[in-house]
């Protein structure tokens, strides 16, 4: 494993340890941000660890959900930058559920080239480097390659637990979906990459830090992450928002593209 990548992974582990210190705490304090989404001390402290260490190790700028958004005129000149969500699935975390993640991606130009997802409650980390494959590490052990299994006769589809809507399921009309599973956070990308699910749809908006790390991991096992018009998601847009996407382990799966947006 590359030395710099190992340093980044250790930093992600450190952020995960900070989060777990507050997990299921009876004294967890929750604030509301301007967009009415929740914020905890775990979000803040994880963000501090990641922002400081990523800049220290690489010198690249950091864009985080929990940092002030820098002007596009400044961001557009960057060759590379880190894109992070220090605690994805904060609502799940507050409820005491285990499906929250730390999301870290390195974006070059408009595409993520490194992706790391860490699920601290499961102590499982997923990572990928564009062109070099995708891997997972359980309990701080040795990396194991993620390999795409053959397509099954029946599919499992993931949908957002916090933003369930009928349009998500409508997008899958005509596919042999046997199970619809609601789930929080970018862990859904990991579940697709490891073949425990096969497709994840989201017709509502997300932010770039929600998808970048997971996109690289899914693509490196042979899957795709596309917008609702069938184009690859791109990053460092003026407004760092995705308008909807489909994450497919098998690119040949045809979704119902005429769902109104």
From TrEMBL:
Q: Which InterPro entries match?
A: CysQ, CysQ/Inositol_MonoPase, Inositol_monoP_metal-BS, Inositol_monophosphatase-like, Inositol_monophosphatase_CS
**Pfam families in the record, alphabetically?**
Inositol_P (PF00459)
The record's annotation in Gene3D superfamilies points to: 3.40.190.80, Fructose-1,6-Bisphosphatase, subunit A, domain 1
Give the record's GO CC terms.
plasma membrane
Residues annotated to bind Mg(2+) 1: 65, 85, 87-88, 210
Q: Which residues bind substrate?
A: 65, 87-90, 210
- Which keywords label this protein? Cell inner membrane, Cell membrane, Hydrolase, Magnesium, Membrane, Metal-binding
Q: Would the keyword Membrane be found if you checked this record's keyword annotation? A: yes
tRNA-binding among keywords: no
Write down the required cofactor(s).
Answer: Mg(2+)
Where is Mg(2+) 2 annotated to bind? 85, 88, 210
Entry's EC annotation: 3.1.3.7
Top-tier EC class: hydrolase
According to its UniProt entry, one GO biological process term is: 3'-phosphoadenosine 5'-phosphosulfate metabolic process
Give the domain of life.
Bacteria
Matching entries from PROSITE patterns are given as: IMP_1 (PS00629), IMP_2 (PS00630)
GO MF assignments: 3'(2'),5'-bisphosphate nucleotidase activity; magnesium ion binding
Q: How does it sit in the membrane?
A: Peripheral membrane protein
What subcellular compartments does it reside in?
Answer: Cell membrane
Main location (coarse class): membrane
Cited function? Converts adenosine-3',5'-bisphosphate (PAP) to AMP.
**What HAMAP family does the database record attribute to this sequence?**
CysQ
Entry similarity comment: Belongs to the inositol monophosphatase superfamily. CysQ family.
- Protein known as: 3'(2'),5'-bisphosphate nucleotidase CysQ
Q: Which organism is it from?
A: Thermonema lapsum
Ranked from the top, the taxonomy reads:
Bacteria, Pseudomonadati, Bacteroidota, Cytophagia, Cytophagales
């Amino acid at each position: 494993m590359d030395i710099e990548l190992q340093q980044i992974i250790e930093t992600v582990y450190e952020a995960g340890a900070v989060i777990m210190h507050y997990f299921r705490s009876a004294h967890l304090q929750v604030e509301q941000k301007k967009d009415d989404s929740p914020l905890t001390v775990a979000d803040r402290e994880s963000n501090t660890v990641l922002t400081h260490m990523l800049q220290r190790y690489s010198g690249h700028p950091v864009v985080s959900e929990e940092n002030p958004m820098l002007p596009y005129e400044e961001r557009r000149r960057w060759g590379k930058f880190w894109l992070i969500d220090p605690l994805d699935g904060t609502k799940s975390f507050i409820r005491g559920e285990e499906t929250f993640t730390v999301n870290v991606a390195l974006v070059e130009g408009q595409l993520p080239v490194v992706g790391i997802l860490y699920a601290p409650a499961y102590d499982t980390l997923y990572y990928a480097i564009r062109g070099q494959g995708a891997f997972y590490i359980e309990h701080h052990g040795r990396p194991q390659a993620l390999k795409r299994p053959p397509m099954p006769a029946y599919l499992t589809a993931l949908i957002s637990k916090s933003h369930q809507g009928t349009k998500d399921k409508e997008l899958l009309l005509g596919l042999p979906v046997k199970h619809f599973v609601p789930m929080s956070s970018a862990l859904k990308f990991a579940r697709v990459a490891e073949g425990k699910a096969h497709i994840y749809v989201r017709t509502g908006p997300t932010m770039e830090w929600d998808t970048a790390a997971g996109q690289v991991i899914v693509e490196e096992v042979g899957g795709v992450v596309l917008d609702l018009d069938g184009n690859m998601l791109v990053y460092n847009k003026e407004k760092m928002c995705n308008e909807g996407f489909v994450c497919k382990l098998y690119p040949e799966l045809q979704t119902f593209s005429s769902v109104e947006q």
